[in-house]
Amino acid sequence: MAARIIFIHGAWMTPLCWDGWVRFFEGRGFRCSAPPWPLRDRPIGDLRLSPPAELARLGIADIVDHYAALIRAEKTPPVLIGHSFGGLFVQILLDRGLGAAGVAIDPVPPKGVSPLRASSIRANAGVLLTWRAWRRIVRMSFAQFQYAFVNALSRPEQEEVYEKHVVPESGRIFFQTAFAALDRLSPIAVDFRNAQRRPLLIIAGGADTIVPASVNRVNHGAYLTAGTPTDFKEFAGRCHWTIGQPGWEEVAQYTAGWLAERAQGSRKG
Question: Over pLDDT 90: what percentage of the chain?
Answer without folding.
Answer: 86
